[in-house]
Amino acid sequence: MLPLTRPLLYGVAAGAAGSTALDIVSYTDMAMRARPASSTPEATLRKLAAKLHVRIPGEGEALTNRIAGLAPLTGFAAGLGMGGVLGVARAAGWNPPLPCQYVVAAVGALIGTNGPMTVLGVTDARTWGLSGWVSDIVPHVAYAVVTVGVLDRMLEPAVRTPRR
Predict the structure, then answer these.
(1) How many whole angstroms separate alpha carbon 114 and alpha carbon 98?
(2) What gap in Å lies between CA 76 and CA 66, rounded to an integer?
(3) Domain total in the chain
(4) Within a domain: 136
(5) Mind listing the pLDDT tens digit for each residue in 74-86?
(6) How far apart, in whole angstroms, are the C-alpha atoms of residue 105 and residue 111?
(7) DSSP code of 56?
(8) What distance lies between CA 82 and its chain's CA centroid?
(9) Closest to 18 in 3D by CA, of 83, 87, 115, 112
């Protein structure tokens, strides 16, 4: 196996765990506050496809359903991708204190998800207000804590000395 393959795969797996945590926090927030799901992932996918001149197959309800299925996958791509980057960075010797790793993971995931939406003009974070920012940042912090924690455990040596 190539030297960075294992850390990359560990990072992707950690990113998957973090993405699951992000979704759990987001859906819990939606249920508690009775807020609707965001339509920005679908709008972003439509704009991105148009900008890249890629036709998403289907028409009418079939197209709408296909986009509804594809749009959340872009969030998973960002989460798994950020996890992979963290895994490779750790294998290359990057190992700052945990708070720094949490910040890098959260900000990286925020950029991966909100960046395309902002660049394509789907949203403007300057207009979100406190509630909008909290409902976006808190799930990304959960993503960071779980991703970094899982990656840290996966990259530990197989034999551990018990902590006292």
Answers:
(1) 24
(2) 16
(3) 1
(4) yes
(5) 999 999 999 999 9
(6) 10
(7) P
(8) 7
(9) 83
Q: Report the amino acid identity of residue 100.
A: C
Answer yes or no: is 42 within a domain: no
CB 109 within 8 A of CB 82: yes
Residue pair 105/18 in contact (Cβ under 8 Å)? The answer is: yes
Residue type, 95: N
Yes or no: say if 139 and 20 are a contact pair by the CB < 8 Å rule: no
* Chain-centre distance for alpha carbon 67: 18
64 Rama sector, left if φ>0, alpha if ψ -120 to 50, beta otherwise = alpha
- How does pLDDT run across 39-51, given as a tens digit for each residue? 999 999 999 999 9
- Is 3 within the bounds of a domain? no
Dist. CA 148–CA 86, nearest whole Å: 8
Range of the domain at 117: 12-32+74-155
Is 146 a member of any domain? yes
Max mean pLDDT among 89-98, 119-128, 142-151, 152-161 falls in 142-151
DSSP of 13-50: HHHHHHHHHHHHHHHHHHHHHTPPPPSHHHHHHHHHHH
**Separation between Cα atoms, residue 20 and residue 89, nearest integer Å:** 22
Q: Structure tokens of 105?
A: 């993971």
